[in-house]
Specification:
Elements lengths: L1 H8 L8 H15 L8 H6 L13 H30 L24 H35 L14 H17 L3 H16 L1
Helix pairs in contact: 2-7, 4-5, 4-6, 4-7
Length: 199
Amino acid sequence: RVVSMLCQFHYSPGQVDAKRSSMWFNEYFRSLDYTRMYFLDSDIEEFRSYETVLGDMTNLKRRVDFAFKVYERLLQRVQQWAIYSVAAVNMPHDFTQSESIPTDYKNLPWCETKEELQDLWRRRVKNALLAEELAAEKDEEKAKLKEEKGEEAEKKDIHILPPKERLMRTYARTYKRRLEVESIEVMEIFLSSLAKTFD
């Protein structure tokens, strides 16, 4: 029904032909993994047979199957990388080494190998650890300055846990939140992906 309404009543109407079906396919993956941190290029290719048939009104079940199969794969990947990221927090990190992480996601390609994506996660964890450590240091400096002035330091809950433990909990929460997504929310993401191809 949503597809029919978009095609008929959108201010710039159009059919879900092979071209728009391909756009819908790609937008759904982007919506689920905008930062390219979970899916591999091989995951996308595995679902490629759906790319031009999402507009096929004679097989609506296949369209819905695609939405949920892709989300199931996402959950597998989120679990996989949550486990890795928690382990990576305790890995030795050389902060004197010059490294970078991508921040322009729009044209970022999907990683082709598990090793490539693992290295990206390692750098992300390293960056997050550095940010946590710097934030903790900044808070300590503020508290020290207030103490020197004879002022009472602010009490903050955010830095009660050590930076590494906070970070590990963050990764675990991310996976938990994904697991709690209901089927109607998956459909919302899927249909919103189609709507984005119209405007």
